[in-house]
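Collaborator request, handled under Task 6.
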Amino acid sequence: MNKFSKPFGIVMSCILVFTMLIMSVMDLNETHMSNPLWPPHARFHWAIQYFSTMMVCILALCLLWVPYREKAGRLSVLFIGVSPLFFWGMFFPALLMPSTDTWPDGVILPQEFPEIFRRIHPNLIMACILSAVSALLTTREYRIEKEITHR
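Structure tokens returned to the collaborator:
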């Protein structure tokens, strides 16, 4: 197999580019990177996460579109497929950490908001959808690769 299926290549590219754009638009501002409530060390850790995610996405895009000998092999499919999960998939275990919240600091929700909706921000819904799509497409791509390899 020398190339990825069209749905895998196109959808994963869109997810990876969207991830880089949404992180840059939504997090390089006063709710995250320049939040006055965050101490410098917290910003440092945020910056590590930001640049790590950007590099993983760029590498996955290169694996999708740059020619190389093992293109569309199992390892490249796996890396590309789990790349969005290094960001979006981590929303879920992060919620298990004490004192975490999906809402940005400084956002005041109405008192009558049900507790469950205080924990669910649109980015959590987006994380669920993009993680599921990535996992499903990767599983599908593995099946295609397996069929071609075993012919």
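The cover message to the collaborator said: "The chain has one domain: 6-149. The chain has six helices and no strands. Please let us know whether this matches your experimental observations."
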